[in-house]
Amino acid sequence: MAKGIQWLGRIVGVCCAAGLASAWAYVLWVPSAGLTLANLNVVTALVFVVLAVVAGIAAVHGHAVVIALVFVASFFPIGVSLLPRDHWLQSVGWLDLGLLVSAVLIWLGRPRAAASL
Length: 117
Known about the structure:
Elements: H1 2-29, H2 40-61, H3 64-82, H4 90-108
Helix pairs in contact: 1-2, 1-4, 2-3, 3-4
């Protein structure tokens, strides 16, 4: 059962990370995607693409702490502000929350250490 929960967390993490990387890449390279990116904002979008890729790699390897750190790094600066919007970019906030769900599932499915006497 624990192994199934961990695999579900990995799948959710990879899917959310792929969606985040795709969304940020789309915003970065399509000028009319909804955000106006100039100078520093382009670098910020690139950082979020890299964070999403790191989250995907961490999900494949089952590193819940790394996924949780990427969630904190991407959700609180921008994901929270995108959630209440009535725009397709709202999905970025929901995908960030999916990273949190993934980290929790992987954490819950981790193997337990045997109790020593």
